[in-house]
Design goal:
Rossmann fold; alpha/beta; 6-stranded parallel β-sheet; 28 helices; 8-stranded mixed β-sheet; 40% helix; 6 domains
Length: 825
């Protein structure tokens, strides 16, 4: 590695269409060996095909991505995704494309690691935006920075509606749903559009691009994947939206992201234009953004994300610690927890996993399994279960994935039926198995299975291309067809602001949340076609609403009447679970309209929200739940915690007397830290009596009455004047249990042994207690009245609490006892 440090390092920075990637490919081809890391699988494939043509032979060129590996034995030049670069290989030239992606929260740590560690022994070339310059000076000061101007002019063309976009335009959207909606609109308005998304396989993407390049369609609808160097003959780029969901939140694009995408317009010496579909509102460009994009001025990066690229495999703990280590350089920030690390931490909690990773080799194998990307976007929990099953096979016997499991899973995917979304979902699943197949040490016959998965992905890709073309390239007019055999899928279905569903102004019903209610008059025979059209339209609306629910804010979710609600619509029921803090959350049957991955994601969102609310609003219950699962807590404390949870955090002390007596001092101290008070008459958590917490507690316990908010004393018979609500009945009044304890402490502080004493009357008066209520309370607290002369204040004498009576043994000298012995003997 020492000679790597002496290699020439060049950073080529500039906007799009400056020939940076072309230069890197030419430089690599001039060396005896080389490697370039790209941000996209599609781009790596595109450059691989180009290098094969340049060299005239495929046996010296390799393609390495997560799901595709072409690795000839004599390979000299390697085209890879950044994640898949084989850094252990020594090559003369190393290039890293779009290095400014080191600032991306999700993948940035990979690009930063390659920026710091990937070196060719003769030449290293870093490609990226001008924004990267300060980071290079700080991290790679020895690099020679070269700026390159754009070959053509990029100018703002204003906002244009879809119907007025010029030919050879690309419309950029930021979700599959939005891409499909725009493509369908273009089919109706302009005859058709090609579709390009990062989730497409290279074969499908190339077929769609070829259709656009050949002039079969004049419009391309794409995600921001086109911003990463995919070369197409575009004259204009229109933004359908300027906001995107980045994996954590919905946000506006940065100027750098806008410039990267807009820069796809114009090619080599041809000028290009960019614009939006909206001239006002959040999806319109500001004048400042337009000026910055036209002048190619992007904000300089101040930080890059970093994670240890060469982690410690001595143990799982060491691996996690090294992956969570903080960077030493001030311009680096620790990367957010990625999916692979989240999966590793989940699996590390499993006893069976820890038993199998007792050597660095097995720790490394576990980490390799955790590196399987979540192509299907199922979320951490479902993906962890899949990776766990995979590692289970990799850590036993010969360490190979069972032939039958692999064969059965990919056989299920060998199905070319279904719509665009179904086929795209199968391709995403196929990518997981392709990734596994390209790990040479995970299968007994990896070459066979790699070919098998490639063949299935190609078939699915061809079917997806045909489905995309059929769906989005259709010049048939959208008129209301009533004759038998008419194609209802072309009918324009609209959903109004109040959920009213109609076709060509014919009302069909109402969509409330995820439940579609058909209007009675829409059931007539002549409306069947309209209902079929509505069903197709509702499918996309359900997906849209499902995604909105998955991405919902905490404020959009509520709890009421044993149900979880989203925007006022019930989406799940709370069913009995292990305890009140961990009920089962069962999705409403109306959500069956969502596909399985969406339902899993919704379930995860609702469970996360509920857990967050318990931690925020009912912290005591959450901590009691932790105690019940803590083997170090001791059985008496766990038993009391269970009893408290069953009673919603409030128990009469008599009912828990045996459990309380069994507690040692550490257990009592832990209860106090949690926020539980062992009172004279009750065991309770004062925090649960506050209005907000009390409302949630009532919801979880199914208590229907609503006490007056903030009331400390209630009239007997008033709503909630009972112990389950936190009020102890005392004659004609019910007193909140924390005030009962306050009076008890004041009385004990005032007394001197067993001498008669008079408690401060102001305390009871300020609470609104009547003399009768106070007398009943003092009696329950273990005091009796003392004789006093007429006109003197009432005095009390401490006589002690009466211990709860022990259960009497049944008599054994009668006929019933003898009968019982015969029955049980």
């Amino acid at each position: 590695m020492s000679r790597f440090a002496r290699s020439e390092i060049t950073a080529v920075l500039g906007p799009t269409n400056t020939g940076k990637t072309h230069l890197a490919v030419e430089r690599m081809a001039g060396h005896a060996s080389g490697m370039i890391g790209f941000p996209l699988r599609l781009l790596a494939r595109e450059v691989y095909d180009r290098v094969v043509r340049m060299k005239g032979r495929a046996d010296e060129v390799a393609l390495i991505t997560g799901e595709e590996k072409i690795l000839p034995p004599k390979a000299k030049w390697f085209l890879c995704t950044a994640e898949s670069m084989p850094l252990e290989r020594e090559v003369a030239f190393v290039g890293l494309d779009e290095a400014q992606l080191g600032a991306d929260p999700e993948r940035g740590h990979v690009f930063t690691d390659r920026l710091l560690r990937a070196r060719g022994f003769a030449e290293t070339m870093i490609l990226g935006s001008d924004s990267l310059k300060p980071m290079l000076k700080a991290l790679v000061p020895e690099a020679e920075v070269i700026g390159r101007p754009r070959f053509s002019t990029l100018s703002y063309a204003g906002a244009k509606k879809l119907s007025r976009l010029p030919r050879r335009s690309a419309i950029v959207a930021f979700s599959a749903e939005e891409v499909y909606a725009v493509a369908e609109a273009l089919r109706r308005l302009r005859g058709g559009a090609a579709v390009v998304m990062g989730a497409l396989s290279p074969r499908t993407r190339n077929a769609q691009v070829d259709m656009f390049q050949a002039g079969e369609v004049d419009y391309l609808v794409a995600t921001d994947a086109i911003g990463m160097g995919l070369n197409m003959d575009l004259h204009h780029v229109a933004f359908a939206s300027l906001n995107k969901f980045d994996g954590r939140r919905q946000r506006r694009l940065t100027v750098a992201e806008m410039a990267q995408i807009a820069g796809r317009a114009g090619r080599h010496q041809k000028d290009g234009t960019f614009g939006a579909l909206h001239d006002q509102g959040p999806n319109a460009f500001t004048p400042e953004e337009v000026l910055a994009i036209e002048a190619h001025r992007v904000p300089k990066l101040e930080k890059l994300y970093w994670r240890e690229g060469d982690p410690d495999f001595d143990s799982v703990e060491a691996l996690v610690a090294s992956l969570e280590a903080k960077p030493h350089n001030e311009v680096l920030r620790a990367a957010p927890e990625a999916v692979d690390l989240a999966v590793l931490k989940r699996l590390a909690e499993e006893d069976w996993v820890r038993q199998r990773v007792r050597s660095p080799l097995m720790v490394k194998r576990l980490w390799a399994a955790c590196g399987l990307p979540d192509f299907r976007k199922l979320g951490v929990d479902p993906h962890s279960r899949f990776v766990g099953r995979l590692f289970g096979h990799l850590s036993e016997a010969q360490g190979h994935v069972p032939h039958q499991w692999f064969a059965d899973e990919i056989q299920r995917l060998d199905n070319m039926g279904g719509d665009v979304e179904t086929l795209a979902g199968r391709i995403a699943a196929a990518r997981s198995w392709a990734y596994i197949a390209h790990r040479a040490d995970w299968l007994e016959d990896p070459i066979h299975w790699a070919e098998r998965t490639r063949a299935i992905e190609e078939k699915l890709s061809d079917a997806l291309h045909a489905s995309l073309t059929q769906r989005f390239v259709d010049k048939r007019t959208t008129v209301l067809l009533r004759q038998i055999g008419a194609d209802a899928s072309n009918l324009p279905v609209t959903i109004g602001p109040e959920g009213e569903v109609s076709v060509e102004e014919h009302p069909l019903g109402t969509l409330t949340g995820f439940r579609f209610t058909v209007a009675p008059e829409a059931r007539a025979a002549d409306k069947r076609m309209l209902l079929a059209a509505a069903e197709k339209r509702l499918g996309s609306e359900y997906r849209k609403r499902g995604q909105a629910l998955i991405e919902s804010t905490d404020e959009e979710l509520q709890l009421g009447a044993g149900k979880m609600e989203w925007r006022g619509t019930a989406v799940a029921d709370l069913k009995p679970g292990p305890n009140i803090a961990r009920p089962r959350i069962v999705l409403d049957r109306a959500l069956d309209v969502l596909d399985p991955p969406a339902k899993v994601a919704v379930q995860a969102r609702l469970e996360r929200w509920f857990a967050d609310q318990i931690a925020k609003r009912l912290t005591v219950l959450g901590k009691l739940d932790e105690v019940t699962r803590d083997p170090q807590a001791g059985s008496p404390l766990r038993a009391l915690a269970n009893a408290l949870l069953e009673a919603g955090g409030l128990l009469p002390r008599r009912a828990a007397a045996t459990l309380i007596e069994a507690l040692d001092n550490p257990a009592r101290q832990r209860l106090r830290r949690i926020g539980v008070t062992i009172g004279t008459l009750d065991v309770f958590a004062p925090a649960l009596l506050k209005p907000g917490a009390a409302r949630w507690r009532r919801e979880l316990m199914g208590l229907s009455a609503v006490p007056a908010e903030g009331a400390t004393v209630l009239p007997r018979g008033a709503p909630g004047a009972d112990l389950p609500y936190g009020y102890r009945p005392l004659g004609a009044q019910a007193v909140r249990v924390d005030l009962v304890e306050r009076i008890a402490r004041a009385a004990h502080d005032a007394r001197q042994g067993r001498k008669p004493f008079a408690p401060d009357p102001a305390l009871a008066t300020s609470m609104g207690l009547t003399p009768e209520t106070l007398a009943r309370l003092m009696a329950q607290l273990g005091f009796r009245t003392a004789r006093v002369a007429p006109g003197e204040p009432q005095r009390w004498i401490w006589q002690g609490l009466v211990a709860p009576p022990k259960p009497k043994a049944p008599p054994r000298d009668n006929a019933f006892a003898a009968l019982a012995e015969l029955k049980h003997g």
